[in-house]
Design goal:
Number of strands of chain A: 5
Order of helices and strands of chain A: EHEHEHEHEH
Distance between the termini of chain A: 41 Å
Largest interface: A-B, 23 and 23 residues
Number of helices of chain A: 5
Structural class of chain A: alpha/beta
Shape of chain A: globular
Helix content of chain A: 25-40%
Largest sheet of chain A: 5 strands, parallel
Oligomer: homohexamer
C-alpha cells in the first residue's frame, strides 16, 4: 500500500489543497492530511477546527485520513508506514522551500521517505490560505476559494485573531 | 496499473536520470523512458544509441520500458495508457519550464494526464547531460556522472559532433 | 480619466516610491497613494505620519492624492473609480508576490481592475523602506534614500520602535 | 496622446498577445504591435505573414497599428512619438529579461521611454508561440491557443520549417 | 592584510557556516565572524552563547576572530580595517537578499567595502540554522548538521524558547 | 600567491567585465582573464581580437594576464597554479548557472579550486556583451558600455557576423 503524508498549516483548507489531494489519490492508495501544530505561529483556526474542515471536505472517502501532529514529519511517516511526503508547488519561492525540506527529510529519514511534488492547477497559483484569511478579516465572500463543505465551518463565534 | 512516461533527451543518460527512475519505481508500476526525437536539435548520440544506453542501465527490470518517440507526449500517454508524466527538477529554471509543459499537457490531454515532479538528489543538481557531453569532448573521464552500464556505450567510432 | 491606486506600507516613503509615482504620472491622470493599515504589523511611523510624508513629497501636484485605507484595495478602487493598481517590482520575489496579488485582485474585482507594473530604476533595487528604518535606528543619515521633502518628517519625538 | 510600442516575435500571434493588447488599450490611446526582424533567428512565419495575423486579429480597431521593424526599438519609439514600451511577463525568467531590456532602453532613449509590464492572465502563463509552433508541426488543433481570426492564416502552402 | 567580516545570526553555528569560514581562509588573511545583535528578533541562543560556539569551533586558529556587534556592518568594517564582507549563498532567495545588502553596503561605505560571495557546498543548501533549531526543539540528534566542537554547547539548562 | 581565473566569452569585453577584474585585484595577486574557445558557438570577434581587447584595457597592469583556452577551466587552473575561479553574477539565471558550474568544477578539480562570486555593480546588471553586439549591428554608439581602450578595437574591416 502506497501512503503519502500531506503536511501543511491549512489555515483554512482551500480549493487548492483539495485539488492536490484529489489528484494525489490517482497516485497513492492513502493520503494522510497532516495539520501541523506550531506553537510559535498564531493561526486563525485552531488545529481541531482545521482538522474538522478537512474531514468535512473529504467525508466518505476512506482513502483520505486527517490528523494533527506536532512532531517531525518523518517520525509520523515511520509511525504511519508512509513512504512519501506530498507537497504542492505554486511559485519559485515554494520550489526552493520544498527543495530544502526534501533534503532535510531525506537525511532525517535515512533516505526512506521520498518527496513528491504536484503543481498548482493553472490559474490557482494565488489561491493561498493567507488570501482567504485576509478576505475573512474584511467579512468578504470566500466561496470562490474554499470548498463548499468547508464554508459553514469558517464561521467563528469569536473571530478575533 | 500506474504507468508514467519519463520523457527527455538523455544525451547521454546520466546517474541523475537513473536516480529518478529508480525512485519513481516505488511510486509507479511501470516507468516508460521516452527518448525524444527533435529534428531541429543536434545530439551527440543518435536516438538508437540513447535507447540502448537506457536499456543497458535498467536491463532485467521489467518495470522499465524504453522507447523513441517523435510525437506529442500526451499522444504517447494515450497509446500506452499512461496517466502520469514524470519529470525531475534541479533548479528554478527547470521548475518554470516544467510548470509550463505541465499546463500545456493538461490542456492537450483534457486533464487526463498528471505531471509528477521529483527533486534531483542533493549534490546532483549540476549533473546534466550537457556537462557530460562537454567532458566527453575533452576526452575526460565521466564515470562519476554516468551509470556503470552506460559507460561502454559512450565510446563512439565517430565521436565528432 | 485614468486613475491608479498605488498601495503600500511606505514606512517611510522613499526615493524609490517617489520615482514610481513620478513616472506613473506620464501614464495616468491621477495616482492615489494608498497607505495600508495593517493592525497585525508594527510600523515605525503611524499611518498619519506616513500620509503626511507622502503629501509633503508631492505637495502642489494635484494629480497625486494620498489616503489611508484599511479595507481591500479593490473596494477602494470601486469607490474612487480607479481602473488600475500600480505596483513597482525590484526583484524576483517582488514579481512573484505581485503576480499573486494581481490574480487575487482580478478575481475580487470581477476583472475590472488591471495591475500595471513599473520596474525599479537601475541601481535602486535595494532602496527599501526596511533599509531606511534600519539606518534610522542606528541614527544614520538617510538623505541618499529619502526625498528631500520627507527628511524633516522622519524626526520623531519618541523614536523607540 | 499616449502611444505604446508592443515589440515581439509573434511567431505566431497568440491569445496571450491579444489579451495584452486588449488590456493595454484601457491604458494607452494607441498600441503599435512591432514585429521584430531578426536575421539570425529562423521563424516559422515570415514577417509579412505575422503582420497579417496581427492585423486580422485587431481589424477595425483604429487604436491598434502593426508594423515590421528591424532596428532598435527606441529608434522606432522616437519616430512614432511613443513614450512607452509595453511588455508582458509570464515567468521569473521573463521578468529578468524584461528588467535588462528596460535598463538598456532607458539608457538608449536617454530616459524618455518608460517600460510598462502587464502580467499574463491567470492560467495563460504557458501560452507561448513556441508551444503553438510545436503543435502545428504535429498537425494538431491550436484553436485553444490562437485567436479565431488568426487561425485561417496559420495554414501554409509550404509548412516545412 | 586582507580582512573579511562574516556577519550573520549563527543561531546556532552550523557545519555550513564552518565550511564558509574554512574556505574563505584560503582567500583572506583574517576572517572576523560577526554575531549580529537584533533586539527585534528572538533567538534560541544568546549572543554570548553563539560567540562561544564559534570560538570553540575555530579554537587555535588565530586567523579567525569572533565578535558581537549591534551596529551597521560597514561601521565595524571601518573600525576593523576590513575591506570585504563575506557571505554565503544557498538559494535564489539568498542571492536576491545578498544583492540588496551589497548595494546598500556599497553606498554606506562609499564604495570601500566589497561583498564576496561563496556558494554553499553541494548537498548542504538545506543546512540552515532554522532546521537545527527545529530539530533541537524536538530533542533530535543534530550531529549531522553542527560541528563537533559546537555540539556540547547546544545543551541549555533552560531550553524553553 | 593568490591567482584567480576569470573565464568567459568576452564578445566583446565590457565595462562590466572591467569592473569585475578591477575589484578582484583587491582580493587576488593575479587575475588571468581566460577567453573561452567554443567551436560550436559563433562569435562576433575572433578569440585573438577578444584577447587584444582585454590586453588593451588592462595594459600596464602586470597583475592582469590574458589567455585563450579551449580546454576545461580546471585543467588551466592546475597549469597556472590558480586556486580560484572568479565569476560575476547579474541575475537569478546567472546565479543558477554559476552554482552548477561551481559544483562541476569542484568535482573535476577534486575540491582544489574554489569559485568566488562578485556581484555586478548596481545599475550594470543589463551590461551584457549581447547588448553591445546588438548595438554594433545597428551601427550605434557603444561608448557607454565598453571601456575607452577597447572602443578602437571594435571597428572591424569585415563586420558581417
Amino acid at each position: 500500500m502506497k501512503t503519502a503524508l500531506f503536511p501543511g498549516s491549512f489555515d483554512p483548507y482551500t480549493k487548492g489543497h483539495e485539488s492536490v489531494v484529489r489528484r494525489a489519490l490517482s497516485l497513492f492508495d492513502k493520503v494522510i492530511v497532516v495539520v501541523g501544530l506550531n506553537p510559535d505561529k498564531r493561526t486563525l483556526f485552531s488545529a481541531e477546527e482545521r482538522r474538522r474542515q478537512i474531514a468535512a471536505c473529504h467525508a466518505g472517502d476512506k482513502r483520505v485520513e486527517v490528523c494533527v501532529w506536532d512532531g517531525l514529519t518523518v517520525d509520523l511517516a515511520r509511525e504511519k508506514g508512509a513512504g512519501f511526503i506530498l507537497r504542492s508547488v505554486r511559485s519559485v519561492a515554494d520550489y526552493e522551500y520544498e527543495r530544502n525540506m526534501a533534503q532535510v527529510n531525506d537525511v532525517l529519514s535515512h533516505h526512506t521517505v521520498e518527496t513528491v511534488l504536484l503543481l498548482a492547477e493553472p490559474g490557482q497559483e494565488a489561491l493561498q490560505s493567507s488570501v482567504v484569511r485576509e478576505l475573512l478579516s474584511h467579512g468578504q465572500d470566500v466561496s470562490a476559494f474554499v470548498p463548499q463543505a468547508v464554508l459553514p465551518l469558517l464561521v467563528k463565534s469569536d473571530q478575533s485573531k
